[in-house]
C-alpha cells in the first residue's frame, strides 16, 4: 500500500466513524481496527501498531467523556497525535552548523529484500542530494567516497558531485575504505569545508563484514552524525535492518528514499522506532532537488489528506526569488492571480524545478500541472504557454478577469505566437484552474518565513473552510462545526497544529 493509500484508508475510517450517530466502544473499535489493518498492510511493524491502538484506547475513555464533549474531535486528535508520536522519537537529530566543520557519515544496506536486489537503497544519490541541499543554502559541502566494494560507486559519486559542483574525494586504486575516509575528511577539513559527507559501502560478501567496516570507518572519522538511508520499499525488513546498523554505529538520523515510488512507506515508521532517531529528509525522485525536509506534523497532516500549509509556505520561500516574494504574496493575498503572475511563476519553475512539489502541498490539490515522470513534457508545455503569453498585451497580462480573453483576442495570440487557438484555450483553462486555487489565499495574512504562527493567528473559520478539503469540512460538521471546533480549541494555533501548519519553525 502506498502511503497516499494508507492516508486514504485512515481518513475513510475516521469519516465512517464520524458518520455514526453515536460513537460508542463498538464504533471506536471498528475505526481503530480499520486503521490497524491499513497500517499493517503498509508494513508498519506489528508491535508499533498494537501500541498505538492501546494508547488511543487509553486516551479516549468514552465513559469518562462528559456529555457535550466533542468525541469525534478527541478521537481524531488522538489518532493524529499517535501517528506523530510513531514518527517522532522525542529528540531531534544533531544539526550541523554552517561555518563549523561537521562530518556526516551515510550508511545503508543494498537491501537484499528489495524488489530489485541489484538496486541500492539510494545512499550515494542521497549523499549528493544532502550536499546539494546545503550548498544551495550557502554551505561548503564535500563528498568522500569510502565505498570500495561496489565497482562504479566512486564513478557515480564523482559524476553526481561534478554535476553539482561539489568537491569530492575517492580512489580507484585504494581498497581500504577506512584509509580513504580518513584522508578525505582530513583534506576537506584543511580546505575549510563545513559539511564533510562520507559515503560508505552498501553491500558486502557478508553482512557481518559490512557492519564491521561501518564500525571502523566511524571510529576513524568520528562523525558528528550518522545517517541511516533506507529504501521505502524494504517493508517489514526495515526494523531489523535499522536495528542492526544502530548496533554497529551510532545512527542519529534516518533518510527514507524513493517515497515517490509504488512502495509501501510504513517501513519508515519502523526505522524510526528501531533507531530511536528521527527521519530528517525524504527522497522523492531521482533528481538532485527531489529531496524534502521531513517534518512530522505536516507529514501526518498530508498523510491524512489534510494538506500542508507550512510545507507549502516553505516551498514558496524556496522557489520564488527573495526579492519577488513580498510582492507575490501581497498579490496573492489580494486574490488577484493574473496571467502575469502565472508567467513569472513559470519563469521560476523553469529555473528552480518542478512546482508540482509546491502544489501537491496545497490542501486537496494534486500535482496535475507537472505529473511525476513527465517533467520534460510539462516543461515543454510551460515554455509553450510562455511563448503564447509573450504575444499578449499588458492589459491582458495584468487582468484577473478571464472574460477579457474573448475569441478574437485568443485568435490574435495564437497567430502572434504561431500556435493553434486550441492551445491558447488550453492555456486559459490552465490559468483558470490555477487562479481558482490561488483565489483561496485571498485575504489571508501571509507570514514571513519563521512566522507560521502569524498565519494561524490570522486564520478565521471563513479562511479555514476555504482551504480545507470539502470532505474534511463535512467531517467536522460544515461551517458550524468548524466554528464550534475553533471556539473549543481556544486558539486557531492549535487548530493549525492539527492541520499541520502550527508553531514557529
Ligand atoms: N525514484 C527514486 N529513485 C531514487 C531515489 N533515490 C535514489 N534513487 C535511485 O535508486 C538507484 C540506486 O541509488 P544509489 O544511490 O546508486 O544507491 P546506493 O545505495 O548508493 O547503492 P549501493 O552503493 O549499492 O548501496 C539509482 O537509480 C537512483 O537514481 C528516490 O528518492 N526516488
From TrEMBL:
Pfam families named in the record: SRP54, SRP54_N, SRP_SPB
Domain SRP54-type proteins GTP-binding stretches: 278-291
Cross-referenced InterPro entries: P-loop_NTPase (IPR027417), Signal_recog_part_SRP54_M_sf (IPR036891), Signal_recog_particl_SRP54_hlx (IPR013822), Signal_recog_particle_SRP54_M (IPR004125), SRP/SRP_N (IPR036225), SRP54 (IPR022941), SRP54_euk (IPR006325), SRP54_GTPase_dom (IPR000897)
Keyword Cytoplasm: yes
GO cellular component terms listed in the entry, alphabetical order: cytosol; endoplasmic reticulum; signal recognition particle, endoplasmic reticulum targeting
GO BP, sorted A to Z: SRP-dependent cotranslational protein targeting to membrane, translocation
Keyword Ribonucleoprotein annotated: yes
Gene Ontology MF terms: 7S RNA binding; endoplasmic reticulum signal peptide binding; GTP binding; GTPase activity
Catalyzed chemical reaction(s): GTP + H2O = GDP + phosphate + H(+)
Compartment list: Cytoplasm; Endoplasmic reticulum
Domain notes: The M domain binds the 7SL RNA in presence of SRP19 and binds the signal sequence of presecretory proteins. The NG domain, also named G domain, is a special guanosine triphosphatase (GTPase) domain, which binds GTP and forms a guanosine 5'-triphosphate (GTP)-dependent complex with a homologous NG domain in the SRP receptor subunit SRPRA. The two NG domains undergo cooperative rearrangements upon their assembly, which culminate in the reciprocal activation of the GTPase activity of one another. SRP receptor compaction upon binding with cargo-loaded SRP and GTPase rearrangement drive SRP-mediated cotranslational protein translocation into the ER.
Family of the protein in this entry: Belongs to the GTP-binding SRP family. SRP54 subfamily.
Subunit and interaction comment: Component of a signal recognition particle (SRP) complex that consists of a 7SL RNA molecule of 300 nucleotides and six protein subunits: SRP72, SRP68, SRP54, SRP19, SRP14 and SRP9.
Function description: Component of the signal recognition particle (SRP) complex, a ribonucleoprotein complex that mediates the cotranslational targeting of secretory and membrane proteins to the endoplasmic reticulum (ER). As part of the SRP complex, associates with the SRP receptor (SR) component SRPRA to target secretory proteins to the endoplasmic reticulum membrane. Binds to the signal sequence of presecretory proteins when they emerge from the ribosomes. Displays basal GTPase activity, and stimulates reciprocal GTPase activation of the SR subunit SRPRA.
Protein name: Signal recognition particle 54 kDa protein
Amino acid at each position: 500500500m502506498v502511503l497516499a493509500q494508507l492516508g486514504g484508508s485512515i481518513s475513510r475510517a475516521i469519516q465512517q466513524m464520524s458518520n455514526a450517530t453515536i460513537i460508542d466502544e463498538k464504533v471506536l473499535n471498528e475505526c481503530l481496527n480499520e486503521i490497524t489493518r491499513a497500517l499493517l498492510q503498509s508494513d508498519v511493524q506489528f508491535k508499533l501498531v498494537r501500541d498505538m491502538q492501546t494508547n488511543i484506547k487509553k486516551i479516549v475513555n468514552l465513559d469518562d467523556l462528559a456529555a457535550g464533549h466533542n468525541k469525534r474531535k478527541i478521537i481524531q486528535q488522538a489518532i493524529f497525535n499517535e501517528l506523530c508520536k510513531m514518527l517522532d522519537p522525542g529528540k531531534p537529530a544533531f544539526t550541523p552548523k554552517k561555518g563549523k566543520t561537521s562530518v556526516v557519515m551515510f550508511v545503508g544496506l543494498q537491501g537484499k529484500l528489495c524488489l530489485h536486489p541489484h538496486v541500492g537503497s539510494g545512499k550515494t544519490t542521497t549523499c549528493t542530494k544532502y550536499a546539494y541541499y546545503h550548498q544551495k543554502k550557502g554551505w561548503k559541502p564535500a563528498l568522500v567516497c569510502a565505498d570500495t566494494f561496489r565497482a562504479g560507486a566512486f564513478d557515480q559519486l564523482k559524476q553526481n558531485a561534478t554535476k553539482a559542483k561539489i568537491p569530492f574525494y575517492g580512489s580507484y586504486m585504494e581498497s581500504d575504505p577506512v584509509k580513504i575516509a580518513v584522508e578525505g575528511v582530513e583534506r576537506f577539513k584543511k580546505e575549510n569545508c563545513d559539511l564533510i559527507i562520507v559515503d560508505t559501502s552498501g553491500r558486502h560478501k557478508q553482512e557481518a563484514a559490512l557492519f564491521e567496516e561501518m564500525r571502523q570507518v566511524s571510529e576513524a572519522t568520528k562523525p558528528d552524525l550518522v545517517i541511516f538511508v533506507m529504501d521505502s520499499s524494504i517493508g517489514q525488513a526495515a526494523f531489523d535492518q535499522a536495528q542492526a546498523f544502530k548496533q554497529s554505529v551510532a545512527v542519529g538520523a534516518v533518510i527514507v528514499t524513493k517515497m515517490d515510488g509504488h512502495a509501501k512507506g510504513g517501513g519508515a515508521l519502523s526505522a524510526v522506532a528501531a533507531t530511536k532517531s528521527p527521519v530528517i529528509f525524504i527522497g522523492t525522485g531521482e533528481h538532485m532537488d527531489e529531496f524534502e525536509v521531513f517534518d512530522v506534523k505536516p507529514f501526518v497532516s498530508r498523510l491524512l489528506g489534510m494538506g500542508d500549509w507550512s510545507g507549502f509556505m516553505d516551498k514558496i520561500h524556496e522557489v520564488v526569488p527573495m526579492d519577488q516574494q513580498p510582492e507575490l504574496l501581497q498579490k496573492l493575498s489580494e486574490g488577484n492571480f493574473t496571467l502575469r503572475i502565472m508567467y513569472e511563476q513559470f519563469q521560476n519553475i523553469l529555473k528552480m524545478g518542478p512546482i508540482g512539489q509546491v502544489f501537491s502541498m496545497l490542501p486537496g490539490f494534486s500535482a496535475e500541472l507537472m505529473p511525476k515522470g513527465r517533467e520534460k513534457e510539462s516543461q515543454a508545455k510551460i515554455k509553450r504557454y510562455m511563448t503564447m503569453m509573450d504575444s499578449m498585451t499588458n492589459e491582458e497580462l495584468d487582468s484577473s478577469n478571464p472574460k477579457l480573453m474573448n475569441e478574437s483576442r485568443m485568435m490574435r495570440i495564437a497567430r502572434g505566437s504561431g500556435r493553434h487557438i486550441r492551445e491558447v484555450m488550453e492555456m486559459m483553462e490552465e490559468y483558470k484552474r490555477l487562479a481558482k486555487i490561488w483565489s483561496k489565499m485571498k485575504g489571508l495574512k501571509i507570514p514571513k518565513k519563521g512566522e507560521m504562527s502569524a498565519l494561524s493567528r490570522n486564520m478565521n473559520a471563513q479562511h479555514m473552510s476555504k482551504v480545507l478539503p470539502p470532505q474534511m469540512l463535512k467531517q467536522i460538521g460544515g461551517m458550524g462545526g468548524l466554528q464550534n471546533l475553533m471556539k473549543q480549541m481556544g486558539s486557531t494555533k492549535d487548530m493549525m497544529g492539527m492541520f499541520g501548519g502550527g508553531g514557529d519553525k
